[in-house]
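User: My collaborator sent over this chain with a note saying "see what the structure looks like." That's all I know about it. Can you take a look?
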Amino acid sequence: MGLTIIEKILANHAGHEVKAGQIADILIDARIARDFGGANVIKNIKDNAMGIDDTNRTFFTFDCNPGGSDQKYATNQHICRQFAREANIPVYDINAGIGTHIAIDEGLVTPGGTLVSTDSHANILGAIGAFGQGMGDQDIAAAWANGSVWFKAPKSLKVILKGQAPENTPAKDIILRLLKEFGAAGLLGYSAEFYGEAVDKMGLSERITIASMATEMGGIIAIFPPNDIVIEHFNRLEKKFTPVYADDDAVYDKIVEIDISNLEPMIARPGHPEDVCPAKEVAGIKIDSAFIGSCTNGRYEDMKAAAEVLEGNTIAPGVVLKIVPATRQVWERCLEDGIIDIFIDSGALVGNAGCAGCAAGQIGQNGPNEITISTGNRNFAGKQGKGFVYLASPQTVAASAIAGVIATTNAMPKVQAEFAPGPGIKAGDKVKSDSVSDKPNTLKGRVWVIRENNIDTDMIFHNRYLAITEIDQMGQYTFDNLKGWEDFADKVQPGDIVITGANFGAGSSRQQAVDCFSALGVQGIVAASFGAIYERNAINAGLPIINSKLIESNIENGEIIEVNLKTGEIRREKTGELINANPFADIQMQIYQKGGLLNL
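Assistant: Without extra context I'll predict from the sequence alone. Here is the result:
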């Protein structure tokens, strides 16, 4: 009995025959850790005192969040860079793009080769007739240290695409049709080999689109026998390789034939990539945003296809289109060919190469209830933000961005959809009282003494938390970026008072740096002086702030003080000492008594 493609690749890298269901130790040609998971790989290496088997086969790729705009990603990237310098490991940094695409474009893996990565879509390597697999941090650490990992050879399924897809149905429509056929688990545990007249003619980008979504069908890999286009790609790179093909008498667990000759534009509804229907069934649904990119549709051919739709058109009013090429190489080619100009002229935002919104990255996220149409490979709830994501081809996404509603290139509405004007916002019925509240004019409480000047708003409430809008959630992050005071929120009690030095609250205008104290029940802040914007924010929020040089005394943590807001007099209970402070101005007292500016 003959062997399938996957059985041959695994056997070549195990040094002995490997049949479906058997477990073998597989030599890995390229071992990749991304900025997502890379720091954990390093931790595993160090904790277990392991070395690196071959630094020429070991790589970092920073593609999830190339800008490092998320603090956790920035930290992970820095940890990875430091380790890479120490261990002499190559880094494809934030300017390079998606790691699996780099592996193909730079020939890190050739047809018949093997690759593992902390990327669940590493099976994209099936597009070139190679084995790729996403693995966890421990697996990748083992591959780095040993050069190989154990693997269970999957069963093989043969998929025959019959006929040719119509011109207006690119590879994304084909894979969405396959998702409709197989569902979320139809390829579970399988290596699916693709054949047919259409497959023979497919370019590299089309194969990548289909291979990248094997994961969404539960597949180990979707693998294509290399055609002349793929072979020529690696010949240009001057790489030595031997393409692998299945034997004529290879044994498949299943053979499935799917006719694509009558294919039409397809779309996946929010929440489930396999919830696929013809795009015409959801045409006309108003969208808020659109995204073109990801490892599924970030190639040059995808960008060009979108540009052909967008050229001479503009994005519908109120709609946001975000475009992110897969790699720097794609980006530069788009720039040279004028495609970037077309994107910008249409009103799109173009980001630097990487995974973008698909990986919760630096561009592409959506907000609560936002309706997005995307070329990504996943639309699980929360995957690309808190909105609702439809999956479609670059052509359909571009057409929808122009139309303002879900639309296809062959059924574009004549008039762009606009958001209906609202009724306007009028003042509500909130009753405001002219009477002064019963808030005390004297504050009494335990003090926390922070003997520092120029404590800025990032020290008080770091910008990584700025997306928080609920005041009751802000308190826990107070001072967590101020060295020595990171545990302040755990120690402080309602009614406590903070004493500190000059220029407290310097920096940004963020209101959260005031509201975090209110969330903790802090009664007030006594400082030698306050940042100008911070002072206004505190007064307007009704948080008592007192200008006094009390910090210059020998006052200690835990003392009790009493502050008279009207007279500006501060009394230390421990010593009876009286310290002068600036009394509240009339407007400050009015706002304080009302509980904030907006209650006046």
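A starting point for your reply to your collaborator: The chain is about 25% helix and 20% strand.
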